[in-house]
Amino acid sequence: MFGPPIVGGRAKARPERALDEFDQIAQLFRPLTFGAPEALDLMDDAAVIAGRPGFDLVITKDAMVQGVHFLSDDPLDLTARKLLRVNLSDLAAKGAAPWGYFLAVAWPPAYDEAQRRRFADGLRQEQLAHVLSLLGGDTVSTPGPLTLSVTLLGWVEAGRMVKRSGARAGDVVLVSGVIGDGGLGLQAARGELDALGADAVAYLADRYRLPTPRLALSSALRDHASAAADVSDGLLADACHIGEASGLGLSLDLERLPISKAAAAWLSCQTDSVAAHAALATFGDDYEVVCTTAPASLEALCAAAAEAGTPLTAIGEVRAGQGVSARWRGVEIAVGRTGWRHA
Ligand code: ADP
Ligand code: MG
What we know:
It is built from ten helices and 14 strands. It is α+β, with helices and mostly antiparallel strands. α3 links the parallel β4 and β5 (133-141).
């Protein structure tokens, strides 16, 4: 291990240069292991994880690139929290309990020590909220944009992970929370929705910068859902993923989409309400959960979700066939994954 340079027999602080890789591991990342024995204090080449009898390890990975998945001037503590949250959202949809993670960071040289500490501080805040330990990772430099990646691990009782492939024809399709805030939030953060007023802009931008992973739904999904996916690419695209994995199609009623007050304000300014609803359903970045359940389990699923403080809204059903079809007040409209047009 590398310690601080010894000058005249005393450790000398070195504020004049950025933390090197070893300083970063020791100062920024080791404290984030929270003493998890599997991390071996980040002193070894690898972590080692003992299996838990009766449980499956559920593993997901998401990467974020500056300018693509977050804005260049977003504060780094928020970016760090979003990095963990987008991964937590995947585990929430699988009914798994988050436990630990691996982190890869590729820093452009321009990021100074204060920014790197701010990033680590954001990770710490988010870890404390979820009882999550950092178990290992890699720290490199890049001539490109800041690039971040997390591999998140969680546990679920053996065989009980909620898959995308479990939907059956006749199942009800539901979605958590509200849809469209993520995409509108990106526009708001870019200053494109100022006409909605400062409160709506602040609310929406915050929803983009710091989505809420629906971990509270985990046990409801495990107990009562036939299939689930997190909504990162857009409701229609992610619903389509459930259909594809289950070998079935889905029909969704766009007028049933749950939306926030801010999204409703945005909708009221749009000339084509159908097109605007379709846009909300294709934007992405919502980090809600779309799931399916047998009609017989619908009441139990909704009650468990409400109990968990995260209501679900029924928005359609699973049917034979393939793809997602969207309806507006019972009339089918053609909506692509990334766009829409009237049928
Ligand atoms: P290698 O010799 O394989 O490059 P490193 O010296 O990069 O290994 O890593 C040493 C230890 O520090 C390992 O336990 C690794 O998991 C950990 N580590 C390095 N970077 C990070 C990071 N960004 N987050 C968490 N752990 C890290
Ligand atoms: Mg090594």
